[in-house]
Amino acid sequence: MRRIIATMKIALRALRRNKLRTLLTMLGMIIGVGAVIAMVGIGNGAKTQIENQIAGMGQNVVLVFSGSFSRGGVHSGWGSAGTLTIEDAEAIQREVPGVTVVSPEVRSGTQIAAGNQNWNTQILGESGDYFTLRQWPVTEGASFSEADVRSANKVAVIGQTIVDQLYPGEDPLGQILRIKSAPFKIVGVLRAKGMSMMGQDQDDVVVIPYTAAMKRLFGMTTLRTINVQAANAKLLTSVQEQITGLLRQRHRIGTGKDDDFTVRTQQEIAEMATQQSETMTYLLAAIAAVSLIVGGIGIMNIMLVSVTERTREIGIRMAVGARGNDILLQFLTEAVTLSIIGGLLGIAVGVGASKIIEVWKSWPVATPMLWVLASFLVSAAVGIFFGFYPARKASRLDPIDALRYE
Predict the structure, then answer these.
(1) Which residues have C-beta within 8 Å of that of residue 153, sequence separation ≥ 6?
(2) How far apart, in whole angstroms, are the C-alpha atoms of residue 122 and residue 105?
(3) Where in the chain are the domains?
(4) What is the pLDDT of residues 50-86, one digit of tens each?
(5) End-to-end CA distance of the chain
(6) Which pLDDT belongs to residue 79?
(7) Residue 103 contacts residue 136 (beta carbons within 8 Å)
(8) What are the E-state strand segments in 67-217?
(9) C-alpha gyration radius of the chain
């Protein structure tokens, strides 16, 4: 133990001799570790935000999209063709066990107006159960009813952005909102959700009965999406399979033919989104880790210079009894000390940068302790790896030649 402590003292004293050079050498490690910590923290924060937003879609949700990834050799994607009908939604509600709520959906962007104010927004046509399915409460007024849906009544529930843009300082409830010149009565205001991960304002929306949207506004006869809620998470896979079988039967899709719809569970959507986030996080971390290699090369370079500068000192130590292993341990300790201190400072810089981004951009940041520990261990490993060669070179110097060195 005394030997280790003495070696540490000698290493620290040697590093203090050239403070600026020591700091510049550590800079590569500081930047590398800091970049890795910051990138991982931001990436994990993005993953958490994605998971929260997908959870905001509701619990135990199955989404049925019109169109398929591949139909007739053409990759069209979700919602590319109106292949779903109201009758499909009713059949799902009626014939699929485990389904509790079904909300047919149509959507379109259009111009809306109130008084002398106008705004371009997204119109969602939904059922009265949509707000329960999506766990999106109405904070003022009330949502429209199934009676409104059956009668295709011109009523609307609006997001907070619509309130801010068209009714600043006013109570929007009971007022008339014109959608493509059709007057709709505002019956409720949705709770504010804020921006999505893609930068879309989730509150910039008007929700109306899907029957009113289809008949009174857009002249649609088909649906783009059917939102389905299962009774519990265990039934999601079963409900997904039964919906697929039911729709293939209703659409008369033969064996071996591509579906003209796409069925996805909330879990699948979450996994796809988080997988993309994780891939991007690891990619950014790998790019940042290149700085660690650069920092390690810097440590090797400076240690080689140090060995050359201290050749005479090494000869004197060997002359008074120091062995090759003692010299090896001394220079290796200096390299590892450089790397570890740089790693610790890099962790502080990375966590600090993450917090600054969190406050400045209102971006959630989550830095796992496992990554902090891994960064510390990697910085120590870099010091050992890149410091071994200079230390070994110092330990193999001939004492006589070292004493003669000028």
Answers:
(1) 144, 147, 209, 212
(2) 13
(3) 2-52+272-404, 84-250
(4) 666 666 666 788 889 887 755 444 444 444 457 888 9
(5) 34
(6) 46
(7) no
(8) 99-114, 117-126, 138-141, 155-158, 176-179, 182-190, 205-209
(9) 33
Cβ-defined contacts of 126-129 (< 8 Å, 24+): 126/207, 126/208, 126/209, 126/210, 126/227, 127/102, 127/103, 127/209, 127/210, 128/209, 129/101, 129/102, 129/103
| Residue whose tokens read 């779903």 | 84
- The pLDDT tens digits for 353-386 are 888 887 886 777 877 788 788 888 888 888 888 8
**Residue where the block lists tokens 């290149």:** 290
Q: How far are the Cα atoms of 126, 211, 339 from residue 206, in angstroms, in the given order?
A: 10, 14, 57
Residue showing tokens 């120590």? 380
Distance CA 350, CA 375 (A): 11
Which pair of tokens denotes residue 45?
């924060």
Per-residue tokens: 154 = 């011109």
CA distance 227 to 86: 12
Among residues 269, 317, 250, the alpha carbon closest in space to that of 57 is found at 269
